[in-house]
Write a structure and sequence with these properties.
Order of helices and strands: HHHHH
Distance between the termini: 102 Å
Oligomer: single chain
Structural class: mainly alpha
Number of strands: 0
Radius of gyration: 32 Å
Strand content: under 5%
Length: 140
């Protein structure tokens, strides 16, 4: 009698995991399915089935994130692996780069016209004339 151990992944056997992959892949956009196929993800062979399951899951999770969430997560991960001195050095370097870019933009697109703001009370707003096509309604 063979003493075989049944493999499972996430509580699913081989055939169940294949079917789960097939169902989940059916809900993905065609571009994702084409990408999986082009990058060698197949639903045959135990290791391939597991890899496909993991990749489908990561694609689904990625689609659920909006751009702001992705940037916040990247920032959180970056802060996790940097010490406060490293973060401070990055912020100083970033401010310096932004200032240099601003100077280059000012050189390329100079703003030579002075901006005049009149704060005097002598300015009167435009008075609008009543349109001849406008109807007037009276209430009693």
């Amino acid at each position: 009698m063979k003493n075989s151990k049944v493999k499972s992944y996430k509580g699913l056997g081989y055939k169940e995991l294949q079917e789960d992959n097939r169902n989940k892949q059916g809900h993905l956009p065609q571009t994702d399915c084409d990408w999986l196929r082009a990058n060698g993800y197949h639903n045959v062979g135990w290791d391939n089935v597991i890899a496909l399951s993991d990749k489908i899951q990561s694609l689904k999770e990625f689609k659920e994130w909006n751009l702001e969430d992705l940037f916040l997560e990247v920032d959180r991960i970056g802060k996790k692996y940097q010490d406060p001195e490293g973060i401070q050095a990055f912020q100083v370097a970033m401010a310096s780069e932004a200032e240099q870019i601003s100077e280059i933009i000012d050189q390329i697109f100079p703003d030579n016209e002075p901006e005049i703001i009149n704060f005097s009370h002598n300015c009167s707003p435009k008075t609008w004339q009543k349109s001849k096509q406008q109807k007037t309604y009276y209430t009693n």
